[in-house]
Write a structure and sequence with these properties.
Layout: H1 13-22, H2 36-48, H3 53-61, H4 66-97, H5 100-121
Length: 122
């Protein structure tokens, strides 16, 4: 019997065990005060790490390392490289059809993506 909001009897014990597993173990609330500059820095850093504010602070507490940021940057670069590969295939097909204007445009886009990848390496 699955409990629902109209179930008036006692809930079976496996239901409560499942709720205990799902419930949060965090029950301590901490308020912090930041100035505008610190808030801006916090927002930039958790956006760069691609984490929520709360996850970012938890990672800081649990010895957050730069490895996570490096991993995220590598994932972004891999996505960009996949896009470059697709653009190269498209460029080959356009060259075969002899559309030089479109081929030049795609070449410029590929260069732009390579520049973005090189900028993130610095």
């Amino acid at each position: 019997v699955l409990p629902h909001k109209f179930y008036y009897g006692k809930f079976p014990s496996p239901y409560f065990e499942r709720i205990k597993l799902i419930m949060r173990k965090r029950n301590i609330k901490i308020n912090i005060f930041l100035n505008k500059i610190e808030k801006k820095m916090l927002i930039e850093k958790f956006n760069k790490a691609k984490l929520s504010q709360f996850d970012f602070i938890r990672k800081l507490i649990n010895d957050y390392t730069k490895d996570d940021v490096i991993k995220n940057n590598l994932e972004e670069k891999l996505q960009l490289l996949k896009i470059v590969g697709d653009l190269y295939l498209l460029k080959k097909q356009i060259d075969f059809l002899n559309y030089s204007d479109y081929s030049n445009f795609i070449t410029k886009q590929i260069r732009n993506i390579h520049n973005i990848i090189n900028q993130t390496q610095k």
